[in-house]
Amino acid sequence: MIGYVTLGTNDLQKNAAFYDALAAEMGVKRMMDFDSFIAWGKPGGAAGVALTKPFDGEAATVGNGVMVALQAKDKDQVNKLHEIALSHGGTCEGKPGPRGDSFYAAYFRDPDGNKLNAFVMEMPESA
Question: Which residues cross the membrane (predicted)?
Fold first, then answer.
């Protein structure tokens, strides 16, 4: 079970606003807040997301092929999270829409370039 995912940042306070806005839409808040590390989520809840300045003091870089997926409650929330991301300095990596029969997602990057998506999986109606 994943407890949380940590992403590197070069400007913790600036990028915290991006994640504060996404977390608010998803009904969670900061659960840890330090000078070099902030985590959002709910203790005992679903996996959280954290930002940190790299421990080695080097610049944070984006991992090629790395993505954090945020589970939304419905398609409307997927759309809203994408909108929030773009209005808080994020960039679009794929507009909200269906991907296959039961997967609806939107893809975006945070201001540091980390790739995220918001998604919902819906089980097809039984015949």
Answer: none
Structural domain includes residue 80: yes
Domain assignment present for 126: no
pTM: 0.85
Q: How far apart are CA 36 and CA 66, in angstroms?
A: 22
What is the spatial distance between Cα 80 and Cα 87, in angstroms, rounded to a whole number? 10
Element (H, E) at 83: helix 75-87
- CATH code for the domain of 95: 3.10.180.10
Residue type, 81: L
Question: pLDDT tens digits, residue range 59-93?
Answer: 999 888 889 999 999 999 999 999 999 999 999 99
Amino acid letter, residue 126:
S
Angle at 12 (CA atoms; ends 78, 4), nearest 5 degrees = 55
